[in-house]
Specification:
Elements (H helix, E strand, L loop, with lengths): L2 H26 L3 E2 L6 H22 L6 E2 L5 H23 L5 E5 L4 E3 L11 E9 L2 E5 L13 H10 L3 E4 L4 E4 L9 E2 L6 E7 L11 H6 E2 L1 H24 L2 H5 L4 H6 L2 H28 L1 H8 L5 H33 L1 H8 L1 H39 L2 H37 L15 H54 L4 H33 L7 E4 H18 L3 E5 L4 E4 L1 H18 L5 E8 L3 E9 L8 H4 L18 H11 L3 E7 L2 E9 L9 H4 L10
Helix pairs in contact: 1-6, 1-11, 2-3, 3-4, 6-11, 9-11, 10-11, 10-15, 11-12, 13-14, 13-15, 14-15, 15-16, 16-20, 17-18, 18-20
């Protein structure tokens, strides 16, 4: 490797590392704290939570106190209203009581309720309040009173009561739902015990805790500065990478990995590859930033057993952003290459479609002109020879008149043909692929036929593009659904882990996280297998094996799941010796039999047949579907398409796509036949051209599952 190539690789790597460090710092360490004066909505929400806490705390110390009153308020309504208040304020109490940034003390003559850390009412670095209730009114002092804290006239409590009327409440004692129905008097008032003293304090700069509620942290921390700094660092990193790429000669970059891959690919291949990878990188960039700023990454680190979530979050961000920043040099190099060579020149030289079209058009035009002019030239030479030999002026005059007429006719024909070809070319150039061809191309018919072929190709490509767009949209929708389910499960149980200290519950939630992780891993593995098979990069290790014995083994592994649905196997197999990859072939039948265990109608028969043709072995698997087969055979073999469109069954929707890919990569075929509720999968595998002799021990091996008598 030359010094320039080393400089290029090291410089881009160094920029990626430094940018990743800056992004990690911005997203995990750069914080600004907003005052309650900065946002009326934030202050109002916090005051509502404090009012909820006040009511709950008072009730826990004096449960027999009557907390509401009003004119003509019935006893039954009073009880329901008070119970509704307690239910509606439980969430606010939970958020604050578990928040390490909320310090409280509620004391009476013989009762007390307080946090581990005492409230700080003397420091200027905290929001605080100390109050009592006298004659139904709040009396006290502290900065929080200036933000609308007034539980005795709380509008949020009144609104929650109005919303609670008419709702159904489940009773664990009776096991029934009881509808809450009560009338709220217009002069409804809230009361609190007058023998209790309440003291609250909240630090103006709260500290994040992954093991406890982070409600106050999220309320008072502003991530705008963090976001702006992260975007600035990212753009600066891109600028530095572009400067390095411009400073290095283009020829050096074209021979240095990974930029050499972009230099070798066509325009169409680069556009597809870089657009797809850029979407993935952009999604990963924004998702990681969001998780880091919201504290979810730190929570995951603690939930996974880490002593501190910040180390986990910084490690994940740093490593991920190194790869993202290094990848960004690829599209930057592509842009640099396009503008260095000139957009028109680059497109003309690197667009595979335009290069092929130009080459074929020139070849056909040349061939057509050669064939069309040969006969006229020979005929003209013949008449000239006759005139010269006879020396007759009359013959020369007649030939001149005939030649003039022919040339005029030929000019008219050529002009007419040229107009027809030019009109067709103009329509294609203007993107009109729907108009019907008109006129006679005359001598330009070969070129005209090629233009018509181009029209048909464009029409076909347009239709395929529309179908591909629809399929891609459906694929993205299915992938999003299949990825969202385990990711949502992971996030949900991670949040539940934060909210409990019960070891039994923690083990339960950790088990759920492990299940969703396995499901996500299986989905990604299946997708890689299909992608490798379609790309032709799937490694194969073919060996001599018995196809019928392999099918018996796959049946044995599926037997337990089939028994759960009372499925009876009807097997008809014959000896079949093949030369295939055992793992890939086994995967074909495992997926087919797993598909049957999910979608077959319970208490039905499954037919498994193996037949021989002159050039191949045909394996047929038939079963009756439990659900209507409202799809075509082509649709069900596409990636992420399931027979169970409601997605109640666990799976990736890649099973039959893997079967098809693994069969085709071994020079076989796979097809689906649907007849009513009958689902038939047919796998065709090639016979080997030459097999070594089978040892006697393998021929006499007893099948794992015997055929039914």
């Amino acid at each position: 490797m030359t010094k320039t190539r080393k400089f290029l690789v090291i410089a881009i790597a160094l920029i990626s590392v430094i940018s990743a460090m800056g992004l990690t710092w911005a997203l995990t360490s750069l914080r600004t704290y907003q005052s309650l004066y900065d946002s009326v909505e934030t202050a109002s929400h916090l005051m509502d939570s404090l009012e909820d806490f006040t009511l709950q705390a008072a009730y826990r110390l004096e449960p027999d106190f009557s907390y509401v009153s009003g004119t003509n308020l019935k006893d039954a309504d009073l009880k329901q209203i008070q119970n509704t208040m307690l239910d509606n304020t439980a969430v606010g109490y939970d958020l604050l009581s578990r928040d390490p940034n909320f310090h409280y003390s509620v004391t009476g003559k013989d009762v007390a309720l307080q946090s581990v850390e005492k409230p700080d009412t003397d420091s200027n670095s905290s929001y605080s309040v100390t109050f009592r209730f006298e004659d139904g009114k709040l009396k006290g002092s502290g900065s929080l009173l200036g933000y609308g804290f007034a539980p005795e006239t709380s509008q949020s409590l009144r609104d929650s009561l109005e919303a609670g009327s008419g709702t159904a409440l489940y009773s664990e004692e009776t096991g029934k739902y009881t509808e809450r129905s009560y009338e709220i008097p217009e002069d409804l008032r809230f009361h609190f015990p007058e023998d209790l003293t309440f003291t609250y304090s909240i630090p103006q700069q709260p500290v994040y805790s992954a093991r406890s509620s982070s409600y106050l942290y999220n309320v008072l921390v502003d991530n705008n500065m963090s976001t702006i700094a992260a975007i600035a660092i990212f753009l600066l990193g891109l600028l530095l990478e572009l400067i390095v790429l411009i400073r290095v000669p283009l020829q050096v970059e074209e021979h240095t990995s990974p930029w050499s891959l972009i230099a070798r690919n066509s325009l169409e291949a680069n556009a597809f590859l870089l657009v797809m990878l850029s979407l993935v990188a952009g999604t990963a960039f924004s998702l990681l930033a969001h998780l880091a700023q919201g504290g979810d990454l730190m929570s995951l680190g603690v939930a996974g057993g880490g002593k501190t979530g910040i180390v986990f979050a910084r490690t994940v961000l740093f490593v991920s952003y190194i790869f993202i920043m290094y990848y960004c040099s690829l599209p930057l190099f592509w842009i640099r290459e396009i503008f260095t060579r000139g957009p028109v020149t680059y497109i003309g030289e690197r667009s595979r479609f335009l290069v092929d079209l130009q080459r074929y058009s020139v070849s056909l035009a040349k061939s057509a002109l050669d064939r069309s002019l040969t006969f006229p030239v020979v005929l003209n030479l013949f008449f000239l020879l006759v005139i010269i030999l006879t020396g007759s002026p009359g013959v020369a005059v007649v030939y001149g008149l005939i030649l003039t007429a022919v040339l005029i006719s030929l000019a008219i024909i050529v002009h007419k043909g040229w107009i027809t070809v030019s009109r067709e070319a103009d329509q294609l150039a203007n993107g009109d692929f729907k108009s019907e061809p008109q006129g006679d191309p005359t001598l330009f018919k070969p070129i005209y036929d090629r233009l018509l072929a181009v029209r048909r190709s464009f029409q076909k490509a347009l239709q395929e593009g529309i179908e591909s767009t629809n399929m891609r949209n459906e694929l993205i929708s299915n992938v999003s659904h299949d990825l969202k389910t385990p990711l949502t499960g992971l996030r949900s149980y991670s949040e539940l882990l934060q909210l409990t200290d019960d070891p039994e519950q923690m083990r339960k939630y950790a088990g759920k996280i492990s299940q969703y992780s396995s499901r996500l891993d299986s989905l990604v593995t299946d997708l890689f297998d299909v992608s490798k098979a379609n790309a032709g990069s799937l490694p194969l290790e073919p060996v001599h094996l018995s196809l019928d014995q392999l099918i018996y083994q796959a049946l044995e592994e599926a037997e337990e799941n089939w028994k759960k649905k009372d499925l009876q196997a009807v097997i008809s197999l014959q000896d079949a010796q093949v030369h295939l990859d055992p793992d890939k072939t086994m995967r074909i039948f495992e997926n087919l039999f797993s598909n049957i265990s999910k979608y077959a109608l319970p208490s039905t028969r499954v037919f498994v047949d193996l037949k021989e043709t002159p050039s191949s072995y045909v394996v047929s698997v038939k079963n009756t579907s439990a659900a209507p087969l409202n799809f075509t055979a082509e649709e069900i073999t596409e990636r992420f398409v399931r027979g169970d469109k409601s997605r109640h069954e666990v799976g990736s929707g890649l099973g039959l796509a893997i079967v098809k890919s693994f069969a085709e990569v071994q020079r076989g075929r796979f097809r689906i036949e649907i007849d009513g509720d009958l689902f038939r999968a047919i796998v065709i595998l090639p016979k080997p051209e030459k097999l070594p002799e089978v040892p006697v021990s393998e021929q006499d091996e007893t099948p794992v599952i015997s055929e039914p008598q």
